[in-house]
Amino acid sequence: MNRLLLTTAICSVLAAWIPTSVNAQVFNYTFKDTSAANVTIKPPQTFVNPQGPLTVNLISGLDRYERVTVLRGADRGEVFSTTTSLVTVSDRLVSSDGTEYYGKSVLLPVLSDGTYTIVNDTLDTKKNVVSTSNTSFTIDTSAPSYKSLFPSQDAGYSMVLNGSEWGLGRGGAGQFSIFADGLEDASGIREARMKIKRADGSIVSDTAMNYDISAKRAYFIWAKDRNTQKGMPSSDLDEVFTFNVSVTDNAGNILNIPPQNFRYDDQAGEYTLFAIHDSNSKTSNVPGIASGYAPYKKGMMVSENPYRVVIRFPKTNYYEFRKGGLTVANSYGNTGTIATDSNYVYVELKLPQGRLDMNYVRLANTYEWGGVDLSYELADLVWDPNSLKSPIWAGPSIERQAADGSWFNSQQWKIIPSSKLPMTVTNVRYTVEPRPYEQRITGAPTCIIPVGASSCTAASVRTFSKGTTGYLHDGHAITSTIESTFNTPTWENIAWMDLPPKITGYDYNEQTNTLSVYINQPYDGAYFNQVYVSRAWLSNLITGKDLSIIGTQFDRNLATGNSVYTFNLKTLPEGLYDIKMNVMDNYGNTGAAPFKKLTVDNTAPSIDATYEGKPVTADVTVFGLENISINLKDALTVPRLTRVTLSGGPNSDLVDLSWIDKGNGTYVLNYPVIFPSTQDGSGYTLSIKATDEMNNSSTSVIKFNYMPKNLIQLERMTTFAVNTALKTSTNEPLAVIRASLLRTEEGAIARGVQTGKLAVRKDAAYPITIAGVTANPGETKDITIDLGVGDGVVIPVFPGKSNVTGVSAFIINFPQLQ
């Protein structure tokens, strides 16, 4: 490069800037997106959604042309090509994040949706290619599509699951969700959000929805196992809300699904344990009843078995008067309203002494199996020791006998591994506390425990077959002919599963080295969540051993059985792997699928910056920035240069630089505007960042002094503080720059008019005027100087402003002598 800098004591230096690059000369894309927002996208992000033309901003160096060719799709048909004008000091750009660099902006024509490749050739002043880069991007201007928005249709409990206003509650066991189904988009789904609003438009919550990529379904969980989930409002079915779902694709296009009205009930509301029946009481606190009831108190003694408890409800919280109120469920004995007044309803329940079961008695909330657990509410009552005792199970309550004669507890959860199938059980045995009355076991099967006895056995043959799944959840109860409320229940819980989980796919994020494994578990969450993925892991086919890396469950959709487990492959020791993905459920069923061969590299690349084959140090003066060579090395994967920043110098500059890839991990830098520095503390700092294929990054910082390779440096000159060219009595200028014979890059004598730049350092005391051009401190101006026949030149120079004293440093830069 035939670059000439004339510098003098009143003179200054060219400044330099450097671009942030990610394996490409495309610095970023700028456009107005489909929502009319101004957007800046940087590689390696590839999806864009311009509503009109797209601007490609290129990082370059001085005295370079940039040729941009846009190719469409896999067939790489050319749709656009242009070459920029020469990059000069006036092409210093500032990006939206404040980064400064030299480059050009190219406005592409309006392109249709699809995938494109930008071939960016960097050319020298003779239009020869010095480097080439390829950057791909995808235009997607269409918002995602969807099929329907609906709630879990198996929610039950009389919920309103369609129509213009849904009625939702906490339901029963399981997970209940709002689904945005059939989500489709060319660029993929980035995010789905659920905003819940009140009728006045105020926002209750704004929650990221789960996204099941296999099912093409986003979902928001409103209740799980009778617990309201994050984001749902707490309500007593007395307010209308709206579900507002928005779906954003990877290009930034947004789908807003029409709002859906709903009401929700998760509040039990007011109720009061009011009275206990006492036949010996001469008074009563129940309205309209004169005697036989005592006010309810925690810890009070109850002498009757069965006993009767009275609960008072406000009419505003009783289902008979308001849909959002409570109802009473009681399978033990009689239930009925025994009194009312203007504000309250008084309901009596007949119950047996002892621990109650919520399956048999509860205050039920709207759209919910439960609401209030009376077994908990009444647990503090004390039973009169002289009263008749209710039946009680003893442990183990229920046992099953296998075909080999062994017994196992089937009242606690019994999970039968798939390796034990088929399994046949032949008998069932019940154990209770002895009572002075006959106890009858009801359910399937039945048997009688005589007075004073504690157990009985009945024949019951069941077979759990291979290739099937199932759940034995038989209910059994201790009853007695002497009292109908004596009904003490319990349940068996035996589950088996011989349907293996499957790995349905995977995704590998090259930027984070995260492997996402997609798994489908048949009947996931069934049998009170007794079906689930118990383990997801990786193994190495090269060694035949499992890897220590731990998978994390990222998502689990019980409606489809799909889940996602993520693995951070950066946590693996360095080396070569042939990875297999594995999954196991809690019954021992397994599934597997291959991933790929992978080199794990946890060591950052080394960076070696040299000048004339020697390391660059702070005491080195570099002549010509192009003579700094950056060399990258990495033992396991291929490194790449990702950012170079130049800072310091007499102008205290800060700029990102572009580079030329010379191959084999060697790079040289493109020129910014850069002023000469000396060893007076005005040296430069070069910050070099490199990244390998596993995203290990290293940064090297070098300091040096700088001089242009083709430099004429003049002594400091002194002139009067007037803005005119003063002359001697012989008509010669007092302050001049003298340049003798100058030659072009080919060695010929430079002649005629030369075009260059006059740059004044920003710390200059006053402007500088040369050849009719005035540049203020920190300014760069175009300048032309006639070298004539090439036998030397005298250039007058003088302050651009009168009556100012001090020092002003400047340079005249001729990028290419002719």
Task: Give an account of the 3D structure.
By secondary structure, the chain is an all-beta fold. It has six domains: 26-139, Immunoglobulin-like, CATH 2.60.40.2550; 158-265, Immunoglobulins (Immunoglobulin-like, Sandwich); 272-364, no CATH class; 393-497, Immunoglobulin-like, CATH 2.60.40; 502-588, Immunoglobulin-like, CATH 2.60.40; 717-814, no CATH class. It is built from two helices and 69 strands. Strands 13, 15, 16, 20, 21 and 22 form a six-stranded mixed sheet that branches. A five-stranded mixed sheet has the order 62-1-69-64-67, with no helix packed on it. The longest helix is centred in the middle third of the chain and has 4 residues, at 374-377. The model is unreliable at 1-24 (pLDDT under 50).
Brief characterization of the structure:
By secondary structure, this protein is mainly beta.
Strand content: over 45%
Instruction: Find the structural class using helix and strand composition.
Output: mainly beta
The biggest sheet amounts to:
6 strands, mixed
Summed up, the helix count is 2
State the low-pLDDT regions, or none.
1-24
Based on the structure, what is the oligomeric state of the protein chains? single chain
CATH class call of the largest domain: Mainly Beta
Q: Count structural domains.
A: 6
Number of strands: 69
So, CATH architecture of the largest domain? Sandwich
CATH topology of the largest domain: Immunoglobulin-like
Q: Summarize model confidence as the mean pLDDT.
A: 90
Question: How far is the N terminus from the C terminus?
Answer: 12 Å
Coarse shape: elongated
What proportion of the residues is helical, as a percent range?
under 10%
From the alpha carbons, calculate the radius of gyration and give it in angstroms: 42 Å
